[in-house]
Amino acid sequence: MSSAIVPNDARAWRPQTFGRRSARQISDPIIEPLWSGDRAMAHVRRGRAELFDELGESFIAGLVAELIDAIGVATRAQSVVLDGYLTSQATQDASSISFGLEAPSSGEMATQLLIGQRRRLASDNAVVPFVPNTPLAFVAVDVLAVDDQPLLEIPLLERKRLLESVLDETELVRRSAYVRPPVDPWLSTWRALGFGALAYKASNSRYRPGESSDDWATALIPAR
Asked: Which of 28, 114, 176, 218, by CA, is between 20 and 30 Å from 195?
């Protein structure tokens, strides 16, 4: 599928899913928080975006109209295909911040993640509640094509860097944070922001739309 994929065929760009390996078996991983919400593929062409679900069906435009407009404005390239999540997790008080793409030091990461927080968390074990009617954001985790050129054979780490160059961050459009091992310095912060699991993805992994990949795995964030 990947070699014959058609840029304008939304159904061909179904998201790659996690395989059966454990996180410990992932070679040279990139580690990122696992977002809660609906997996979504964003297709943008000349500033106009469309959002599709895991089956390639279009999300109801009226329900995500503001978000669709925001994705189009945030995109710098003529066309892109993005893998991400529709989630209210990124617009709640404790996580309404810019996650950025390049991973800072652990101290900088903690400071960055907590900018804009308007209340103190009771402890590192506190979980940010999901607030009804909180606006949805699109959190991009991968870029699969730029200007009609598929990037499926490019290693994940390079795609992550390309993502930063083609997508600006706004209130409703984010790029997911990622780090390299060791992940321990980030666990308490991500736990406090409401994340319950992590995604481990091999930094050299390719992308196979609609398939599961043993180069990707999930793991629960251990309780303190």
From this structure: 28
